[in-house]
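User:
I study polymers; will you set down one protein's sequence and backbone structure tokens?

Assistant:
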Amino acid sequence: MKKKQKTKKILLKRFRITKNGKVLRKQGFRRHLNAKKSSSKKRALGRVVKLNKIYAKKVKKALGVKKR
């Protein structure tokens, strides 16, 4: 029998998968050196963005998500 693949727990914390199968992530560059960034730039960095198609496939595989 084939073993079940374990879910990578760190990826569960960092990514979210929508109902349609898109992988969402938070943006970086928000932790420090914020004094020189404009308010609009910091607001934009706070948003959630869609992950690149190539990386999304790898993340889904590591999370053990079935294809739709």
